[in-house]
Every structure is written in structure tokens, then in C-alpha cells.
Design brief:
Chitinase A, domain 3, 5-stranded antiparallel sheet, 54% helix, 11 helices, alpha+beta, 8 strands, extended
Amino acid sequence: MNYSTTTVLFLTLLTFSVGCDVFKEPDDRVVIAQVKERNLYLEDLEAALPEKLSSEDSLNFVNGFIESWATQMLLLDKAELNLSLEEKDVNAQLEEYRRSLIIYKYQSKLLRQLLDTAVTSAQISEYYDNNKDDFELQSNITRAKLIVLDRDSKDVEKVRKWSRSDKEDDREKLEEFCIQHAKQYHLNDEVWVPFDELLAKIPNTSYLNMNYFSVYNYAHVQDTTGHYIIDVKEIKYKNSVSPLEFEKQNIRNILLNQRKLELVRKLEKDILNEAINKNEFQILQN
């Protein structure tokens, strides 16, 4: 911990609301908070304190950490007093959790080593074609351009012209202009985006909504801060089939998860067969 963080830490400890004293134990560990016989040590706080926090954030973190620790200890005391010996016996659950955690870590390590993460476009397309009913849009999406210019821009007309043009030369001019002069822009009208996200970037008007863009594919509005130019190439509506391009990453994740499950099943089957072949596993009674 650097000097400034250490200073903030000790200021916090001195002013902490529970009013506990910072003192040394015989083992030289610094105790910074105490709940009955339980102690919170400075080294525990240091280990938890994130790096590169501001003085104010460090102060807030320390207070929150100590209060959270104290709350947990007090809850633990209440639980110890109010639960029966049988209810407090969690050894079986702890052992089950330990086994599950170790197995999970081992399987994760094997998956990192063995999983084929290459998913081809053909595999994505095949999955999409076979499962189109699963890809229903939950909201409206669009392919569109959006350009935001300063209120006093003298280039509005040529930007409007370029934005509506399909000529490659005009597209290049528009991109070059936007990089240098636009306040904000989205020019890739081959990419599907949620329609609400697009509308959120323009002034709230009574007429610019889905009904408007169902009829018109272009809009130019302005407010006191700027010009907003929207050129809509295509819209897909809620509850219709989602386009492949919008689902590619989702399908890739689905295929990878399927591979993970298949690989885990194979690993489990192989390890069981290996144990049987080596006489390391047998069912003694049936």
C-alpha cells in the first residue's frame, strides 16, 4: 500500500464509527476492529483493498469493509446461539462443496486445454437454419446511419447528401468528414443495433418513432445543441425472426457451450471406464 493510501487508511480507522481502538496483539498483528472475541486485522484489510483508489474511494472502501465484516461476525454469533448442534453441523455440506469446487477447477483446466474454440461461419449458419424458431426478436432492431453535427455546422447539406448515397466515394467522404468534425456518428449500416438505442441518441420528439420509420427511412432534426441525421436502411420488428447477423455471437456461444457439455460428458465416461478397466471401481452389491 502506498503512503497516501496508508494515510487515508489510518485516518479512517481513527474516525471509524464503531470507535474501536487500534492496538497490537502479542503476535504483532494490528487489530483494527473487534466484535466480542473476534478480531479483524490490518493485513486482512490490506489484502482486500483495491489498488489505485483515490483517497475518498479508499476511505469509503475501508468503512464499508469493516462494517461488512462486523455485520457478518454479529450474524454468525446470532446463528451460533439460535441454531441447534445438528443445524450447525455443516461438515457434509462443506465437504460436498470442496469436492464440487475441486472437480470444477479440474474440468475447467481440461476444457482450456482440449476445447476446440474454432466456430466456422458454416456451423453458425447451419445452427441458425435448423433453429430459427428459437431466434425471436425481443425488441425492434435496425441497420442505420446516425450523424450528429454542431448546431452551427455549415456542412449539414453535404452530410445529408453523403449519408443517403450508395456510392463508395460518398461513403468515404462521409467517414473522413465524421472522423474530423462530427460530434457523434455511427456509419456501419450493415450492423444491426437495437432501435431504442438509436432513438435514445436523438432529441425526444413526438413524431420520430417506429410508426414514422415504418413509412420514412430518413430524418433530420435539430435542437439547441446540434443536428441529428438518421438514415435507416432496414428495420426488423419485435417478435419477428431475428436475422443471422444479429445472432452470430449468440450462436457461437451456444455451440461452444454444447461442445463443453459434450467434452465434460466424454471425460466423465472415459474416467469411469478407465477405473473399471484397472479394477479401481466395482459395485460390490446390487
